[in-house]
Amino acid sequence: MSQPSYIKLYKNGLLGERIKKAWDILHECRLCPRECGVDRTAGETGICKTGVKACISSFNPHFGEEDPLVGSRGSGTIFFTHCNLLCLFCQNYEISHQGYGQEVEPEVLAGLMIDLARIGCHNINFVTPTHVVPQILEALPLAIRAGLNLPLVYNSGGYDSVETLKLLEGVFDIYMPDFKFWNNEAAKKYCNVNDYRERACEAILEMHRQVGDLEINSCGVATRGLLVRHLVMPNDLADTSAICHFLAQEISSQTYVNIMGQYHPCGRASEYPELARPLSGLELRQAQEIARKAGLKRLDQRRRPSFAVV
Q1: 86: alpha, beta or left, given left = phi > 0 and alpha = psi -120 to 50?
Q2: With 60 as the cut, is the pLDDT of residue 308 above it?
Q3: What is 5-299's CATH topology?
Q4: 139 neighbors 106 (Cβ within 8 angstroms)
Q5: What is the pTM of this model?
Q6: Using an 8 Å Cβ cutoff, are 171 and 5 in contact?
């Protein structure tokens, strides 16, 4: 079994340099495209409501992720509290918007990684990591010294800064961003960002440059590469066709894509008539066919419980 890429960075001292650069960004925070400019090292907070310490809501072996992440022993997920995107229909609204969770020291975060590794998880899956990149990097050497040797998964909403992602080259072996919206008007309405499409395109291009197409070993477990999630929205509010064409033509026709059909009204979705119903089975099937016609060759096939209705 090959070593995760971060082991080399740690051994040659470059990981320490990345940690310093990441913390420097926090003085006038521009970790994500919102660029709030607050001094998080002094306890100030911006959109993500996170200061100097990461906040965690839960950690566990997760068996509801894509098959290449789950394998036979689960994906070791660490769910961070708060979010830089804040979709008003978020299915984890109490975590992302309401702040359910607990602040942790880097030693605790490192210990969670080791605990998940000892349980036998195939990877360490950081859920909503964009706003806590420095804290993850700070904890990583502690986990490495304790024996961590698993691929790391960057599981984000897709609203990521290329500047920050470049600090992560050689740290994360697997990137798993969402591509939520092509339509910036919808992104503005439901996430309060004007430039989601542009920033997601840039971020996914950078992620793919770093790790390439998803590589899966003989046991069916992902070891490196890009996996993109796209949540199909009612009434095609996300413009699935444009997203799929971008992925097939500008990233790779071999991009592993999960066309997700589990949208159902959560959070504040009921305030918007166009969001106030679950996705239909027909809409999901149409979206999957759109992805195939766009030229995407690797669509996630796992059959998992869904909230879609006929």
Answers
A1: left
A2: no
A3: TIM Barrel (3.20.20)
A4: yes
A5: 0.95
A6: yes
